[in-house]
Amino acid sequence: MLELPFFTSTEAYVATLGNREFWRPYVAPVLARHGLEAAGEPLHAGRGSTFPTFICGEAVVKLFGHLPFWKSAYGAELAAFRCLAGDDAVLAPRLLAQGRLCDTPAAPWTYLITSRMAGTQWDQAALSDAGRSRIAADLGEQVRRLQALQPTSGIPTPEAWSAPGPAEAAAQTALPQHLIAEVEQYVASRDLSGNLDPVVVHGDLMDRHVFVSGERLAGTIDWGDALATDPHYELAQLQLNLFEGNKDLLRTFLHHSDWPVGRSFARQALGQAFHRQAVGLAQHRTMDVFHKLPALLPLEDIRTLDELADAVFGL
User: Fold this and answer.
1) Domain parsing of the chain, residue ranges
2) d(CA 58, CA 41)
């Protein structure tokens, strides 16, 4: 009988994430159990995964264990896929199977099997400016559909994650200290959390999770960060990572998502970016939603968070 994976440290665990030979004895039986065996198909490791994720043929296997929040991560992603089943036009993988490596309910290492996403990751595609704009429009239409879904009881809210406070989380970013010092008061004074009815958000629309084909959106992967929360939460990774601060792409996205842009839009978006940073640390151990900003803006010359909000999200 195959023993369950065990690691003496998180460093040892992380070192195996892309190791196909280590995980093959676990992935192969899972596929066979659900009639998805692909004889001779090589395993391909997912890029940048928090949990071991492997592609085999048209199926993707994601295993959940070791990390202290594995149960929360598994439950959140499973709930997201069940919610997505409410609209076939949402371009995302579909849940094929779920289960656990061991029949003992208390044992770790559950798994999800999903369909494989067609296309190429945004960061690996040679996209033209016009192509990026078309995909931004496609993403806007997708987010509009996503926000129209009814959150199921299983989709967590930000409070479900044991996240640090926004100021503590901001200290683990590329922002300069004079801006970090403003975060706690900035977020609290504007009541930027929970001020709108919660909607379903993907939460991590970054360059590795958006797939494209023929300069159109093919779909989005990795739904483990999905939440029911303020819609502005969606904009952090979208604008700070995927669009790299490009306001033309942001305008296109907002137009096609029918987003109601008010006078406080930029401040709301930045406030929710700090919440995204905090929850992201709870979901992934490490996170910096602002890591691209030093290459995009003269951060030391930006005196206040209001100025930063306008520089990144102001329209």
Assistant:
1) 10-115, 120-313
2) 10
Q: Which residue has the tokens 């979901």?
A: 283
Mean per-residue pLDDT of the chain:
93
What is the total residue count of the chain? 315
168/181 Cα distance (integer angstroms): 10
CATH 3.40.50.620, domain 120-313, yes or no: no
Tokens of 105: 């309910």
What φ, ψ does residue 94 adopt, rounded to 5°?
-115, 145
pTM over 0.90: yes
* Residue pLDDT, tens place only, 117-158: 999 999 999 999 999 999 999 999 999 999 999 887 789 999
Q: Is 90's pLDDT higher than 90?
A: yes
- Above 70 in pLDDT, residue 39? no
